[in-house]
Amino acid sequence: KPEADSHSQVRLKKERIVFQEKIQFKKGDSTINQDSHVLLNEIAEVIKRNPQIRLISINGHSDSDGTRAFNFKLSGRRASAVLQYLVARGVAANKLQLKGFGDSQPIASNQDDDGKRINRRVEFVVNQQQ
Questions:
Q1: Is 82 a residue whose pLDDT tops 50?
Q2: d(CA 102, CA 48)
C-alpha cells in the first residue's frame, strides 16, 4: 500500500497549509460537499502529523454576491463547519480557531464567475509553532 503522502495534495509550508483543490460547500450554505471529505481528511492528517503546530486559524472567505453581513456570517459558518469536521477526525480543538472575513479580502476580481470562484475559499494559517 503506498504511503499517504505519495499522492497527497496537502502540504505544510512555513505558515500555511496549502492545497490545490478547493473545499466545496452547498451554494449559499455551510454544508460541506461530500466531494471535499477526502481533502479535509488529508488536511486533518497533516495537522496530526505535525505536533509542532500549536495554533491554526481556519479563515473563511466569500465572493461579493449577497450582502456584506450575509457574506461575513456565511464565511464564519463555513470556517466553523471545517473546524468541526477536523475535530471529528481527531484534530485537537484547542489547536484550531476560526475567522470569517466575508468578502473583505478578495484575491481576484468579483466582476466575473472565475474571480468569484477564486474568492470563495477556506485558508489555513499556522499562527503558532513550537
A1: yes
A2: 28
